Amino acid sequence: MVALIATGQVPDVTFKTRVRDESVGGPNPYRWQDLTTSDIFAGKKVVVFSLPGAFTPTCSSNHLPRYEELYEEFKAHGVDAIVCVSVNDAFVMFQWGQKVGAKNVFLLPDGNGEFTRKMGMLVDKSNLGFGMRSWRYSMLVNDGNIEKIFVESDFGDNCPIDPFEVSDADTMMAYIKGTESAGVSEPRLAFVG
Q1: Is 59 among the catalytic positions?
Q2: pLDDT one-digit tens code per residue, 60-76
Q3: CB neighbour class for 34 (10 Å; exposed up to 12, middle 13-18, buried from 19)
Q4: Three-state SS annotation for 74-106
Q5: Choosing from 10, 48, 59, 85, which is the catalytic residue?
Q6: Which GO terms of the cellular component aspect does the record hold (predicted)?
Q7: pLDDT tens digit sequence for 16-31
Q8: Domains defined along the chain, listed by start
Q9: pTM of the model
Protein backbone atom coordinates (compact mmCIF):
# COMPACT_ATOMS: atom_id res chain seq x y z
CA MET A 1 0.00 0.00 0.00
CA VAL A 2 1.31 3.45 -0.92
CA ALA A 3 0.67 6.40 1.38
CA LEU A 4 1.03 10.06 0.49
CA ILE A 5 3.08 12.05 2.97
CA ALA A 6 4.02 15.72 3.07
CA THR A 7 7.71 16.49 3.06
CA GLY A 8 9.51 19.22 4.97
CA GLN A 9 12.91 20.22 6.27
CA VAL A 10 15.79 17.80 6.72
CA PRO A 11 16.46 17.13 10.42
CA ASP A 12 18.78 19.46 12.29
CA VAL A 13 21.72 17.35 13.46
CA THR A 14 25.49 17.52 13.84
CA PHE A 15 27.54 14.86 12.07
CA LYS A 16 30.92 13.71 13.42
CA THR A 17 33.34 13.61 10.48
CA ARG A 18 37.08 13.33 9.94
CA VAL A 19 39.02 15.71 7.68
CA ARG A 20 42.59 15.65 6.47
CA ASP A 21 44.78 18.17 8.29
CA GLU A 22 48.54 18.15 7.56
CA SER A 23 49.22 20.06 10.79
CA VAL A 24 48.26 16.90 12.71
CA GLY A 25 51.35 15.07 11.44
CA GLY A 26 52.11 11.39 11.75
CA PRO A 27 50.76 8.53 9.64
CA ASN A 28 47.11 9.53 10.20
CA PRO A 29 46.86 13.30 9.55
CA TYR A 30 43.13 13.64 10.24
CA ARG A 31 41.12 15.48 12.87
CA TRP A 32 37.51 15.46 13.98
CA GLN A 33 35.24 18.10 12.48
CA ASP A 34 31.57 18.64 13.16
CA LEU A 35 29.32 19.25 10.15
CA THR A 36 25.81 20.52 10.70
CA THR A 37 22.76 19.98 8.55
CA SER A 38 23.04 23.66 7.63
CA ASP A 39 26.68 23.21 6.51
CA ILE A 40 25.61 20.47 4.13
CA PHE A 41 22.28 21.74 2.79
CA ALA A 42 21.92 25.52 3.21
CA GLY A 43 21.66 27.28 -0.15
CA LYS A 44 22.38 24.08 -2.10
CA LYS A 45 20.58 21.54 -4.24
CA VAL A 46 21.67 18.16 -2.86
CA VAL A 47 20.85 14.59 -3.81
CA VAL A 48 20.98 12.31 -0.78
CA PHE A 49 20.82 8.55 -0.78
CA SER A 50 20.94 6.35 2.27
CA LEU A 51 21.74 2.69 2.54
CA PRO A 52 22.06 -0.07 5.14
CA GLY A 53 25.82 -0.20 5.38
CA ALA A 54 29.26 0.37 3.96
CA PHE A 55 30.87 -2.69 2.37
CA THR A 56 27.50 -4.45 1.90
CA PRO A 57 26.95 -6.05 -1.55
CA THR A 58 24.26 -3.91 -3.25
CA CYS A 59 25.57 -0.72 -1.68
CA SER A 60 29.10 -1.38 -2.96
CA SER A 61 28.35 -2.91 -6.36
CA ASN A 62 25.51 -0.70 -7.55
CA HIS A 63 24.03 1.97 -5.27
CA LEU A 64 27.14 4.09 -4.64
CA PRO A 65 28.96 3.34 -7.94
CA ARG A 66 26.04 4.43 -10.11
CA TYR A 67 25.74 7.77 -8.30
CA GLU A 68 29.50 8.16 -8.88
CA GLU A 69 29.04 7.38 -12.59
CA LEU A 70 26.26 9.95 -13.03
CA TYR A 71 27.91 12.65 -10.92
CA GLU A 72 28.75 14.99 -13.83
CA GLU A 73 25.27 14.57 -15.29
CA PHE A 74 23.72 15.49 -11.93
CA LYS A 75 25.98 18.54 -11.78
CA ALA A 76 24.89 19.54 -15.30
CA HIS A 77 21.30 19.50 -14.05
CA GLY A 78 22.02 21.92 -11.20
CA VAL A 79 22.85 19.51 -8.37
CA ASP A 80 25.55 20.95 -6.12
CA ALA A 81 26.42 17.78 -4.22
CA ILE A 82 25.60 14.10 -3.87
CA VAL A 83 25.67 12.75 -0.32
CA CYS A 84 25.58 9.12 0.79
CA VAL A 85 24.38 8.62 4.38
CA SER A 86 24.91 5.41 6.31
CA VAL A 87 24.71 4.46 9.97
CA ASN A 88 28.45 3.79 10.10
CA ASP A 89 31.26 5.69 11.79
CA ALA A 90 33.67 8.04 10.01
CA PHE A 91 36.48 5.45 9.92
CA VAL A 92 34.32 2.81 8.23
CA MET A 93 32.95 5.32 5.70
CA PHE A 94 36.48 6.50 4.86
CA GLN A 95 37.78 2.96 4.31
CA TRP A 96 34.72 2.04 2.24
CA GLY A 97 35.23 5.12 0.06
CA GLN A 98 38.87 4.12 -0.49
CA LYS A 99 37.89 0.52 -1.33
CA VAL A 100 35.21 1.42 -3.91
CA GLY A 101 37.07 4.44 -5.31
CA ALA A 102 34.48 7.08 -4.36
CA LYS A 103 35.74 10.43 -5.57
CA ASN A 104 32.65 12.59 -6.13
CA VAL A 105 29.98 11.39 -3.73
CA PHE A 106 30.42 12.71 -0.18
CA LEU A 107 30.22 9.79 2.26
CA LEU A 108 28.51 11.15 5.35
CA PRO A 109 28.79 9.05 8.53
CA ASP A 110 25.68 8.97 10.70
CA GLY A 111 27.43 6.92 13.35
CA ASN A 112 24.84 7.51 16.06
CA GLY A 113 21.93 7.12 13.65
CA GLU A 114 20.52 10.49 14.76
CA PHE A 115 19.83 11.87 11.27
CA THR A 116 18.40 8.54 10.15
CA ARG A 117 16.17 8.30 13.24
CA LYS A 118 14.89 11.86 12.80
CA MET A 119 14.18 11.09 9.13
CA GLY A 120 12.00 8.20 10.34
CA MET A 121 14.23 5.75 8.45
CA LEU A 122 15.99 3.92 11.31
CA VAL A 123 15.14 0.21 11.26
CA ASP A 124 16.28 -2.81 13.24
CA LYS A 125 18.33 -5.20 11.13
CA SER A 126 19.28 -7.51 14.01
CA ASN A 127 18.17 -10.46 11.89
CA LEU A 128 21.40 -9.83 9.92
CA GLY A 129 23.52 -8.89 12.93
CA PHE A 130 23.55 -5.23 11.86
CA GLY A 131 21.65 -3.69 14.77
CA MET A 132 19.97 -0.38 13.95
CA ARG A 133 20.55 0.81 10.37
CA SER A 134 19.05 3.03 7.71
CA TRP A 135 16.33 1.90 5.38
CA ARG A 136 17.28 2.46 1.74
CA TYR A 137 15.95 5.75 0.29
CA SER A 138 16.95 8.77 -1.78
CA MET A 139 15.82 12.38 -1.76
CA LEU A 140 16.31 15.68 -3.51
CA VAL A 141 16.88 18.52 -1.06
CA ASN A 142 16.72 22.21 -2.00
CA ASP A 143 18.12 24.60 0.61
CA GLY A 144 17.26 22.17 3.39
CA ASN A 145 13.75 21.43 2.08
CA ILE A 146 12.94 17.90 0.94
CA GLU A 147 11.50 18.28 -2.56
CA LYS A 148 11.14 14.59 -3.38
CA ILE A 149 11.82 11.35 -1.54
CA PHE A 150 11.94 7.80 -2.88
CA VAL A 151 11.59 5.13 -0.20
CA GLU A 152 12.05 1.44 -0.93
CA SER A 153 9.06 -0.86 -0.38
CA ASP A 154 8.48 -3.19 2.57
CA PHE A 155 9.80 -0.67 5.10
CA GLY A 156 10.14 -2.28 8.51
CA ASP A 157 12.26 -3.94 11.13
CA ASN A 158 14.07 -7.19 10.34
CA CYS A 159 12.88 -7.21 6.74
CA PRO A 160 14.08 -10.47 5.14
CA ILE A 161 14.80 -8.69 1.84
CA ASP A 162 16.73 -5.56 0.85
CA PRO A 163 14.60 -3.83 -1.81
CA PHE A 164 16.51 -1.69 -4.30
CA GLU A 165 14.12 -0.36 -6.95
CA VAL A 166 13.50 3.38 -6.45
CA SER A 167 16.43 4.87 -4.50
CA ASP A 168 18.88 4.33 -7.35
CA ALA A 169 20.67 7.06 -9.29
CA ASP A 170 18.72 6.50 -12.51
CA THR A 171 15.35 7.00 -10.80
CA MET A 172 16.56 10.26 -9.24
CA MET A 173 17.99 11.45 -12.55
CA ALA A 174 14.71 10.68 -14.33
CA TYR A 175 12.85 12.68 -11.68
CA ILE A 176 15.17 15.69 -12.07
CA LYS A 177 14.95 15.59 -15.87
CA GLY A 178 11.16 15.22 -15.66
CA THR A 179 10.72 18.30 -13.51
CA GLU A 180 12.94 20.31 -15.86
CA SER A 181 11.04 19.26 -18.99
CA ALA A 182 7.70 19.96 -17.30
CA GLY A 183 8.91 23.47 -16.53
CA VAL A 184 7.27 23.45 -13.10
CA SER A 185 8.09 22.09 -9.70
CA GLU A 186 6.07 19.18 -8.42
CA PRO A 187 4.06 19.72 -5.26
CA ARG A 188 6.07 19.08 -2.12
CA LEU A 189 4.65 15.63 -1.60
CA ALA A 190 6.24 12.23 -1.81
CA PHE A 191 4.99 8.71 -2.30
CA VAL A 192 6.16 6.25 0.30
CA GLY A 193 5.68 2.53 -0.20
Answers
A1: yes
A2: 888 999 999 999 999 99
A3: exposed
A4: HHHCCCCEEEEEECCCHHHHHHHHHHHCCCCCE
A5: 59
A6: cytoplasm
A7: 998 888 888 888 888 8
A8: 10-20+27-177 (3.40.30.10)
A9: 0.87
